[in-house]
């Protein structure tokens, strides 16, 4: 298990970002999706929790085979997806990622939003007070992002919002920015497979960090698009964008659940919008050892020793003394 805490500040308030995070997630998912790969929304519906109250439960399938490193693509099926389940009780959210093909792999993210510059060192005391973790600050203005994801229009150093007047962030902007908020994210990555655990967990954290950096840069750079939206308007944008994203991914019809009636478990387990990943934990066929492989024979299967009472050919074993050799008799 590898645990890290990420802190990402933005020139927004927590109340403003309640709309912004919904807009950003929907638009980002749509932009990152292409035919056969991307983010498919399976369910997006209200959810009541006895502890956290009213929230929203979203289930997605993230198809990302081409984004895996070569050593990972060699051992996963071509139709490969990760299941994302998110419980949004803003300003507190829980997100989990699992994969039936890799039962020992999981990502667990707890997020809390506060109006400060990332100065709350005890925000996760209830969740991970005694757990050792690295705290990583992500600067949306100054941290480098992968070149293929860079867009000048989404660079906070170059962008200035017409509706809020915020932007053109420079080095040290967090010290003087007002308003300012912080996304605190406690990320746990598990891949309990001997020989691969450290490598995979470090790789996943690198991917998580890049996604967080890009997503929060976009949330601010798109502020003029969502700043005046109401919650009803952003929910409608979310619904329309999700349907468009599902159509963009493949030939399967979208299957976003909008009913308030609970479906039987057998119905909910395999939506018709995409083939389901096999639930078997067996290795794929190309990695399996052939069951009827002929055994190499290096010696006779049976060894028959001669009867000492009968004369006949003598069996000579390597290193043994032959019985045909004359024995030395004791001289009297």
From TrEMBL:
<dbReference type="GO" id="GO:0005634">
    <property type="term" value="C:nucleus"/>
</dbReference>
<comment type="function">
    <text>Catalyzes the transfer of phosphatidylinositol (PI) and phosphatidic acid (PA) between membranes. Binds PA derived from the phospholipase D signaling pathway and among the cellular PA species, preferably binds to the C16:0/16:1 and C16:1/18:1 PA species.</text>
</comment>
<dbReference type="InterPro" id="IPR023393">
    <property type="entry name" value="START-like_dom_sf"/>
</dbReference>
<dbReference type="GO" id="GO:0008526">
    <property type="term" value="F:phosphatidylinositol transfer activity"/>
</dbReference>
<dbReference type="Pfam" id="PF02121">
    <property type="entry name" value="IP_trans"/>
</dbReference>
<dbReference type="InterPro" id="IPR001666">
    <property type="entry name" value="PI_transfer"/>
</dbReference>
<keyword id="KW-0445">Lipid transport</keyword>
<protein>
    <recommendedName>
        <fullName>Cytoplasmic phosphatidylinositol transfer protein 1</fullName>
    </recommendedName>
</protein>
<feature type="domain" description="Phosphatidylinositol transfer protein N-terminal">
    <location>
        <begin position="1"/>
        <end position="243"/>
    </location>
</feature>
<keyword id="KW-0446">Lipid-binding</keyword>
<feature type="region of interest" description="Disordered">
    <location>
        <begin position="265"/>
        <end position="332"/>
    </location>
</feature>
<keyword id="KW-0813">Transport</keyword>
<dbReference type="GO" id="GO:0005737">
    <property type="term" value="C:cytoplasm"/>
</dbReference>
<comment type="similarity">
    <text>Belongs to the PtdIns transfer protein family. PI transfer class IIB subfamily.</text>
</comment>
<feature type="compositionally biased region" description="Low complexity">
    <location>
        <begin position="265"/>
        <end position="284"/>
    </location>
</feature>
<dbReference type="GO" id="GO:0035091">
    <property type="term" value="F:phosphatidylinositol binding"/>
</dbReference>
<dbReference type="InterPro" id="IPR055261">
    <property type="entry name" value="PI_transfer_N"/>
</dbReference>
């Amino acid at each position: 298990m590898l645990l890290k805490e990420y802190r990402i500040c933005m020139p927004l308030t927590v109340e403003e970002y309640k709309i912004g995070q919904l807009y950003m997630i929907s638009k980002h998912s749509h932009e990152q999706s292409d035919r056969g790969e991307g983010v498919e929304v399976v369910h997006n519906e209200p959810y009541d929790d006895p502890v956290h109250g009213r929230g929203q439960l979203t289930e997605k399938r993230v198809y990302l085979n081409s984004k895996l490193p070569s050593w990972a693509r060699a051992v996963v099926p071509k139709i490969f997806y990760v299941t994302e389940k998110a419980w949004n009780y803003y300003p507190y959210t829980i997100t989990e990622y699992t994969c039936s093909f890799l039962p020992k792999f999981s990502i667990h993210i707890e997020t809390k939003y506060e109006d400060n510059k990332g100065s709350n060192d005890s925000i996760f005391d209830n969740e991970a007070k005694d757990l050792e973790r690295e705290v990583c600050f992500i600067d949306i203005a100054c941290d480098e992002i992968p070149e293929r994801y860079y867009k000048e229009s989404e660079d906070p150093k170059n962008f200035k919002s017409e509706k809020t007047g915020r932007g053109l962030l420079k080095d040290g902007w967090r010290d003087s920015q007002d308003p300012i908020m912080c996304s605190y994210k406690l990320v746990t990555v598990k891949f309990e497979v001997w020989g691969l655990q450290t490598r995979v967990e470090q790789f996943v954290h690198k991917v998580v960090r890049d996604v967080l950096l890009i997503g929060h840069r976009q949330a601010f750079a798109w502020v003029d698009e969502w700043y005046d939206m109401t919650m009803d308007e952003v929910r409608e944008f979310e619904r329309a964008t999700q349907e468009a994203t599902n159509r963009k991914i493949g030939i399967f019809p979208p299957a976003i659940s909008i009913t308030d009636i609970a479906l039987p478990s057998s119905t909910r387990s395999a939506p018709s919008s995409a083939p389901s990943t096999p639930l078997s934990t067996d290795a794929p066929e190309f990695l399996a050892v052939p069951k009827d492989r002929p055994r190499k024979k290096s010696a006779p299967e049976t060894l028959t020793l001669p009867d000492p009472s009968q004369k006949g050919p003598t069996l000579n074993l390597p290193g043994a003394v032959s019985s045909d050799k004359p024995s030395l008799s004791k001289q009297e």
